[in-house]
Each structure stands twice: as structure tokens, then as C-alpha cells.
Amino acid sequence: xxxxxxxxxxxxxxxxSAAVAPARxxxxxxxxxxxxxFADGSGWQRVxxxxxxxxxxVSVVQEPLTSLADDVAATKRVLDQQQGPTLLVGHSYxxxxxTEAGNAPNVAGLVYIAAFIPDQGENAVGLLxxxxxxxxxxxxxxxxxxxxxxxxxxxxxxxxxxxxQASFMAxxxxxxxxxxxxxxVTTAAWHQKKSWALIATRDHNINPDLxxxxxxxxxxxxxxxxxxxxxxxxxxxxxxxxxxRAAKASSR
Length: 252
Description:
Layout: H1 2-20, E1 30-34, H2 45-53, E2 57-61, H3 68-79, E3 86-91, H4 94-101, E4 107-113, H5 124-128, E5 138-140, E6 145-148, H6 153-157, H7 163-170, E7 176-177, H8 178-181, E8 195-200, H9 208-218, E9 221-225, H10 231-234, H11 236-250
Parallel strand pairs: 1-2, 1-3, 3-4, 4-8, 8-9
Antiparallel strand pairs: 5-6, 6-7
Helix pairs in contact: 2-11, 3-4
């Protein structure tokens, strides 16, 4: 009887200890990257390679850029394929997308790279109007898709990228539907989830002052890099290190 009582007491203590012990944080090892307008996800390969060597599983969303809803759906499609908590990264217009898509339950944190960080009800066009324009080279097609004037693209988007590469990007840029640029975010995920922001201080596509203002409002942990809008191409190591820092801090 005494042995049974001791065994029962031991089991009870073990159960109580398990109940009160803090849960072990699950490391964030998945990274989903959402590109912006005027450049597709292929430019993120160097960042993805660095993250991959450090043990992260990286997926890059190729959004259609036809509407904000379509781009959020494309991102959620990739998020649904992840096993475990995921860090969501957005560049430029991709910041609009991750702010909405980041409400998915498996998103542990948000990283904005030279990106829009909208609040509820805000759209990219409205945010751009808050500060002086970084350039005046945006054009629209007859059917209302936006693009950067190819002659101005290297200076506006990728001034610190090799000229030949920037020129190719200028003539292969994916266009953004004007409706997507004017579509408002309905729920801003950064209100509930921790965020990080990289400010590209030599950005001539989004005014760096706007990037700073949005990051401050969101309470994002922020770093500043002297780079163009294409900072993920010109400074891949710095971008990857910020993503890794965010992933480690987002483990749960």
C-alpha cells in the first residue's frame, strides 16, 4: 500500500510539474518572402542561399500583382505549405501584402524590407502621398498597370546594383495593377505580432522618411542600411542577418 501511495504521489508531482513548467519555444525555421512591384522574387536568391546555409527553409511567393486580394491569397497559399511557425518577409509593395496575410496563425513575425507598413484602411498610393515623392518616373499602361520608366529604373530602383543587371531588371519588371496600389488593408497584423524593418537610406523608390515614419508607428525594431530600394540585391548579407535575428526572436 505504501509503495502504491508513493508511486501515486510521484505521478501527481510529475503531472503538476509538467503543467506549470514553461513551454519550450518552437524555433522559427521557415521564411516566406513576398516581393514587391517592378521586380519579381528571383532577385532574392542570394538572401535565400544565405538563409538556407544557416538551416532555414525559404519559400518565395510569386504574386500575380493583379489585386491586393489576389496577392494575399497567393501568399496564404504558400503559408499553408509551411510546417511550423513562419517568419513573413515583405519588400516594397510586399509590405502591404504581408500586413494582411500576416494575420495567418502560423506567422510568428513580420519583416519589412524597404517596404510599406500600412495600418487598417491605408493603401500604397495614400501612403506615398504623405511625403515628397522619391521619384516622378511611375507610368501607367492603357489598362491601368503601373511600371517605372525603364530609362529611370536603374537610378530609382537599383542604383547600387551592377548596371547591366539593373538594365535587365528595367526591361523585365512585373507591372502592378493600379487597383492593387489603391486597395486598403483591412487588418494590420503588426498590431498583434512583432515586426522588424530595414530602412534603405538611399531609396529613390519609396522615400526613406516614409519608411522611417511607418516603422516607428508600427513599433518595429529598425535598422538603417545605406542602400537603394533593391537592398536585398546589393546587401544580401545584411538583409539575411536581419531576417535571422527576427526569426530567433520570434521563436515560440
